[in-house]
Structure formats: C-alpha cells, structure tokens
Design brief:
heterodimer, A: mainly alpha, Helix Hairpins, 3 helices, 0% strand, B: mainly alpha, two-stranded antiparallel ribbon, 2 strands, 1% strand, globular
Chain lengths: 100, 463
C-alpha cells in the first residue's frame, strides 16, 4: 500500500508546479490550467487524508471543489471570450489599459 | 444499511433562503420585464424582507456548520445596507451606460448571499463555498460592460488573481484537515490546543490568511485592487469596495479567533506587518493618483489596514470596533461613489474643479464624505477611527496605532485635494450633473448617517 506521505508529497509537488506555472507563464489559458492544477493537487491531498482518517468530510469537500472549479472555468473562459472580442489576445502583457 | 437523516432546522438559514429565492426569481423575472428598473426595486424589497427575517433567525443548524449569532447578524446588516445602496446607485448608472442586463441584480443578490454565508460559516467548507459564491458573482459583475475593454480587463485580472487566491485557501484547508481531522472551526481549535502547533499548521494558517487578506485588498495582496476598481463599472466598484471587504473581515474574525486562538501570537505578528504595509502602500500610492476611482481603491487598501488593527487587538472590543468601522465605511464610501456617479464626467480628480460654484449641493456632499474618510469630527469617520484605535491601544499595541495615526494624517492630503479642487479652483465649464431620484436618495441617506453616527455615536457603538 502506498503510504500517506507519498500522496501528500505528490500533492505538494503538483501544487508547486501550479503556482510556478501561474507566476511565470503569460498566456491566460495556461494560467487557467495552472489554477486547475492547483485545485486538483488540493483534491489529491484531501482524498488521501480522507481515506487515511476514514472520515468522509474531505471527500465531501472534494465534490464541492470539483463543482466550483467547473463554474470557475466557465466564468473565466466567458470573461476571456468577451475580452477576445474586443482585443484579440490571450497574453497578460497586452492588458495595459490601466496602469499606475 | 440506512440511517435516517434528520431534517435540519431551517429557521437560522431563513434569511439566506429568502435571498436565494429572490435571486433565482430575479433571473426568471428578467425574461418577463422589459423595464429593468423594476428588477432593481424588487431586489431592494428582497433586502428589506431579509432584514426583517434576520432578527428571528438566531440559532445553529446543519450539524453545527452554520451559525446565526449576533456577530453574523451585524455583518449581514452591513451587507444588506451595501446591497440597497448599490442598487440605488446602479439604477441610473446602468441606464446611462446602456448595460441594463437583467442578470445584474440577480448577481448582486447572489454575491450578497455568498457574503451572508461567509459571515455565518462555522465550518471551513461553508467558508469556501460562501467565498466562491461571492467571488464568482463579483467577477461577472466587474466585467458586465461586455463591450468595454477596461471592464473586460478588470474582470480578467480579478478572476485570475481571485482564483489563484482561492486555490491557496483550499490548500490551507486541506492541510488543516489533514492535521486536525476536521473542518469545523471549534473542533479545529480543540485539536490544535491538544496537539500543539507545528510548522505545517503555521503554513496552513498563512495560506488561509493570505486568501482572506486578498479579499479585503490588504497589502501585499492588494495589486489587483486599483486596476479592478478603475475598470469595473462604478456601481460595481462601490459594491466591491465595501461588500467583499466586510465579508473578508467577517471570516478573518471568525476563523482566526475561533479556530486558531492558540496561534494568536503568530497571526498577530503577521497581521501587524500586513496592517502597516497596507496603510503605507495605500496612503502613499494614493497621493499620486489622478483618477478618483483609483484613488478610492488605494484609500480602501489603507482603510483595510486601519480595520485590521481591530482584529490585531484580538478582543471582543476590537471585533465590535471593526464592525462599527465597516458600517461607517459602507456609508461614507458608498456616498463618495454616489457623487462620482452623479457627475456626468466624474472619474478624474480634475473634473471636480469649480464644482462648488456650479453645483454647491453635490460639492457639499462630496466634502462631507472626504472629511469623513479622512476622519475629521463631527463626521462618522472620526468615530470609526477613534473606536478602532482605542481598542488597539487597550490591547497593548500602542506603537502600531501611532503609525496608523501618522498615515491617517498623510491621507488628508489626497482626500482634501478633491475638496480643494471643488472649492478653490475655478473652471469655465464645470461638469454637468445627471440627477436622479435614487442617487439623491442614496446621497441623502449616506450624508445623514455620516452625521448621525458622527454626532451620536451611541446609535452604533452602544449595542
């Protein structure tokens, strides 16, 4: 059986990858994917803990997270589409309407 | 094996149920009513109905996940006041900007519902769900001017950073759950008290804190605020500058004081740093602004810093000082935004030149709000700052209060610059007004409250 530590380690690694991806990439779609990666890292951690503790609370939270993540992705893409109609770009460097 | 699940007691969630029903009904009503102002009036009615149900909703339900107590109730009153004032501001603004989308009011109600859930949450799962409901609704509201590039950009920036911060919150919740085997705030406190602290628990607490600090726009998590405040529709900016901030303080107070009292030394140290940084960043960067929405954004960062002093105090008195301050802040900030909307072109600080001569009443109202935001008696802003500084001094953080007072003095420069432009500068053609009954009502209400609280603080403090 895989010990709990490995799952926690895996989730920490994936979460860090998500943070790094979010911070260094400038493509909005890839930033969105990085956030999804972070959320799924959290899900791994929660399910592993939940199984280890024999407690369902963590898995309930995972179901909520998956639902909210779907709504979040839908809203994010909708905002991106309405931006794209006004200015055909998916790069954050091009978003320079406001500064200061 | 089947276990009967008892039907939960619905009385404590009655305000939330009414809010949900009203928000859902608005979505449908949007298809029926051609005149969108009706929807705005309906949402005010819903807020009033919730207000009356509020006082009858004491109690705990859903297996201790949801609590309706005096603390949550006072926050909900602030949310409802914010909602009503926002609707009053939105009615003329949306018509003028031609963005009378029916879902606007529904989203406002859903955002308020999220805040109410946050204030009542006694479990980290509810905290997360309330926060997301509020955040997702405000992302859309910020971008509701679909054909305006600035609005798109504001919504996108808010969305990207907001979803990043909620991922941090979730990781913090997951770590806390792994360490304490529960997500219930009181049970977490019991477990932490029994098991002692560990570096991982500290990390979890910091992750949770950073997400809440993002919501209240405290430095160093404030980077989104100026851009989002400037780009979002002005009525939404007014809503965002008060509502989510109040909700953020509601969860900060609840989570830190209920779940992590044994880590108090650690989070007090963090929050002192954050408070000083917010006051410094907000007040100093506001000096250089030329756009009034941007200036109010930096000022809201600074006010978040002042309000954190009440949490730092960590006492009951400190918490009630935060509540008083938020209530006062709701009135004065919404009032200032109402004047910004009242002006035909009022987004630049230059636009206010000569306003006192051409429109003395509007200028006088703006003067009151600027004085109140600075904290000059006899306005309410003074009472707010006084109670919060007093609570912090009594808790033994006198040196932080000294810094806060110094920064508060600096803030006079940029608030009074607007006043100087209105009263001491002349301009050939002053900006025209766009008067409407709802804006007039909003400004009268806020000016009145700013003075009533300023002269008779017992109406809000003695509770």
């Amino acid at each position: 059986m895989v010990p709990l530590n490995w799952y926690i380690g895996l989730s920490a690694v994936i979460f860090s990858l998500g943070i790094i991806g979010f911070l260094i990439r400038r493509n909005i779609l890839i930033m969105l994917m990085s956030v999804e990666l972070m959320l799924n890292a959290v899900n791994i951690c929660l399910v592993a803990c939940s199984h280890y503790l024999q407690d369902l609370r963590g898995q309930v939270l995972v179901v909520f997270i998956i639902t909210v993540a779907a709504a979040e992705a839908a809203i994010g893409l909708a905002i991106l589409v309405s931006l794209f109609r006004n200015k055909a770009t998916v790069h954050t460097d091009a978003l320079t309407e406001m500064k200061g | 094996m089947s276990m009967p699940i008892p039907f939960p007691d619905m009385k404590p969630v009655m305000p939330e149920l009414i809010m949900t029903g009203a928000a859902a009904a608005l979505l449908v009503a949007e298809l029926v009513f051609r005149k969108k102002a009706v929807l705005g009036l309906f949402s005010i009615l819903a807020a009033v109905a919730v207000f009356f149900v509020l006082s009858m909703s004491f109690g705990e339900t859903f297996n201790g996940m949801f609590i309706s107590d005096a603390y949550s109730m006072q926050f909900k009153v602030i949310f409802l006041i914010t909602l009503i004032l926002t609707v009053l501001l939105s009615l003329p603004y949306l018509r003028r900007e031609r963005v009378e989308n029916g879902e606007y009011y529904s989203l406002l109600l859903f955002a308020t519902l999220g805040m109410m859930l946050m204030a009542s949450a006694k479990d980290l799962i509810i905290v997360y769900l309330g926060l997301e409901l509020m955040a997702l609704s405000t992302y859309i509201l910020a971008g509701i001017k679909k054909h305006d590039l600035k609005s798109n950009e504001a919504a996108l920036k808010y969305f990207l950073l907001g979803s990043f911060s909620s991922a941090l919150l979730l990781y913090g919740i997951a770590l806390t759950y792994g360490l304490t085997t529960t997500t219930d705030l009181a049970a977490i406190a019991a477990q932490v008290g029994r098991g002692g602290t560990s570096p991982v628990l500290l990390l979890a607490m910091i992750l949770i804190a950073s997400s809440f600090l993002f919501k209240i726009a405290a430095a160093p998590f404030h980077m989104w605020a100026p851009d989002v405040y400037e780009g979002a529709p002005t009525s939404v900016t007014a809503f965002m500058s008060v509502g989510p901030k109040a909700a953020g303080f509601a969860v900060i107070g609840r989570v830190f004081l209920t779940a992590f009292p044994s880590l108090q030394a650690d989070w007090t140290a963090i929050l002192i740093g954050v408070a000083i940084l917010s006051m410094a960043a907000g007040n100093i960067l506001a000096l250089a602004q030329t756009n009034i929405k941007r200036m109010l954004a930096y000022s809201s960062i600074a006010h978040a810093g002042y309000m954190l002093l009440g949490i730092i105090a960590g006492t009951q008195k400190g918490l009630s000082a935060v509540l008083t301050y938020l209530l006062i802040y709701a009135f004065m900030n919404m009032g200032a935004f109402a004047v910004v909307i009242l002006l035909d072109k009022g987004e630049e600080i230059k636009d206010y030149e000569g306003l006192a001569r051409s429109h003395p009443l509007a200028a006088a109202a703006m003067l009151v709000f600027m004085f109140s935001l600075t904290g000059i008696p006899p306005t309410a802003g003074f009472i707010g700052k006084f109670t919060i500084f007093l609570a912090a001094v009594q808790a033994g953080h006198a040196w932080v209060v000294v810094i806060a007072v110094i920064f508060s003095a600096i803030s006079a420069y940029y608030y009074l610059r607007v006043v100087r432009n209105m009263y001491m500068r002349e301009r050939a053609e002053a900006t025209a007004l766009r008067p409407s009954w709802s804006l007039g009502l909003a400004i009268c209400l806020t000016v009145l409250m700013v003075f009533i609280i300023g002269v008779m603080p017992s109406v809000v403090i003695g509770r």
